[in-house]
Amino acid sequence: MLDEFQLRKLVHRYCRAVDRGDISALRDLYHHDAEDDHGAFSAGSVDDFLEGLVAARPYLRSMQHHITTVNFAVDGDSAEGEIYSIATHTVLAGDHDVDVTVGGRYLDRYEKRDATWKFIERTIVTDWATVDDPSRLDVSHPITRSTPRGSTDLNDPSHQYFSILNRDA
Predict the structure, then answer these.
(1) Cα 12 versus chain centre, distance
(2) ∠ CA(80), CA(166), CA(9), 5° rounding?
(3) Which of 16, 45, 83, 126 has its CA 20 to 30 A from that of 161?
């Protein structure tokens, strides 16, 4: 149970790091020799994936990765996981924003080294996707109008709000 808890925490840390654009925290979740296959976006070493994210950041307005069903199998210091997710992305496309929502799964392999679980291999599977071009974002309603806006970088309100969570991330 402890291994599964640590793996679940690893998966959730990935979501926060990628959504908030924290490349350093994201890199720390992978072993140095890890592979990551995000299809046409990036396939190869985790460093290739992270370089792609850094290059895409000027075009990323918003990202949220929502984890739903998780299935882990642990065998000693190796584990596998099938992680269901719904990921939303708002990207700049010329003079307007486009929303891309993807329902899919991460097929993961993990290794525990020096008592710490990290990704050794991650592959994305797309089960469905929708594209709203242009974006349908509308924050004019009173429920959303005066709320802080999230961002994919250190300007996100969570970086100023949290002290313990940011330290433990």
Answers:
(1) 8
(2) 20
(3) 83
Give the dihedral of Cα atoms 17, 50, 38, 97; nearest 10 deg: 70
**What does DSSP say about strands 30-37 and 116-132: parallel, antiparallel, or unpaired?**
parallel
Say if CB 61 and CB 90 are below 8 A apart. Answer: yes
Contacts of 9 (CB under 8 A, 6+ apart): none
The predicted pLDDT at position 137 comes to 87
Q: Which CATH architecture has domain 2-168?
A: Roll (3.10)
| φ, ψ of residue 147 in degrees (nearest 5) | -85, 150
- The 10s digit of each residue's pLDDT in 12-64 is 999 999 999 999 999 999 999 999 999 989 889 999 999 999 999 999 999 99
Domain spans, the chain: 2-168
Secondary element (H or E) of residue 116: strand 116-132
Beta partners for residue 96, in sequence order: 93
What burial class does residue 104 get, using C-beta atoms within 10 Å of its C-beta: 0-12 exposed, 13-18 middle, 19+ buried? middle
